[in-house]
């Protein structure tokens, strides 16, 4: 994939969350079952970094569960960061510090926003599939690896939209984004998202999504210094719309 195509796809998603961020956040106020399962297995104390923290639903649950240590949420969308701060999850809680910062994973300097490490774990729920190109994803995962201490874990989920006939119907031709199929990589998909308020015309946005295969994730883990330690499917009708994996730093 060329740098120009990568930039176009990043801008496509940035524009989507700029235009539809508030409406999108309104549909993501509850914690997914898979995330709750992850939380149930995490220690109550630690330093955690959440990539793509969105509108702060996870941060609020983090505080509600009485966790201690540090939760730091990063997101490239100013709209969603502001929504997270307004949700009241930010600030200090007994034994817990929660804060949010803007960071664009598409930029090589994003780790600066993470602050001082190392972290016990890094979370990235529904994030990697919005990052175009294998090369970019590998670079980001190599950076994640440097933020983790010994035994640190990277816990992430990828959208398995192919398991939903309704979502498959939302697949759009690449020409709508000014691209051709040859411009993108296998698994890359253009999906639309629809939103309407009572009495208003429906608004449609476009998003770039990558459909991950398990062997592709295994290749990324091995290439960036991780090993797979847990995997499960969850979320949505049939419980198969999210593929969750926990990776551990190799050699730990």
Structural summary, described in words:
31% of the residues lie in helices and 31% in strands. It starts with a helix and ends with a strand. Helix 3 (57-64) links the parallel strand 1 (45-51) and strand 2. By secondary structure, it is an alpha/beta fold. The protein is globular. Helix 1 (3-26) packs parallel to helix 4. It has an eight-stranded mixed beta sheet, sandwiched between helices. A three-stranded antiparallel beta sheet has the order 7-8-9. The protein contains seven helices and eleven strands.
Count of DSSP-assigned helices:
7
State the strand order across the main sheet. 3-4-2-1-5-6-11-10
Q: Which class in CATH terms?
A: Alpha Beta
Regions with pLDDT < 50 over 5+ consecutive residues? none
Q: CATH-wise, what's the superfamily?
A: Vaccinia Virus protein VP39
Order of helices and strands: HHEHEHEEEHEHEEEHEE
User: Structural class of the helix and strand makeup?
Assistant: alpha/beta
CATH topology: Rossmann fold
Main pleated-sheet profile: 8 strands, mixed
Determine the strand fraction and express it as a percent band.
25-35%
The CATH architecture classification is: 3-Layer(aba) Sandwich
Distance between the termini: 34 Å
Count every beta strand, where a strand is a DSSP E run of 2 or more residues.
11
Radius of gyration, in Å, reads 18 Å
- What best-fitting shape do the alpha-carbon axes yield? globular
Please give the domain count.
Answer: 1
The portion of residues assigned to helices is 25-40%
* Mean pLDDT over the full residue set: 89
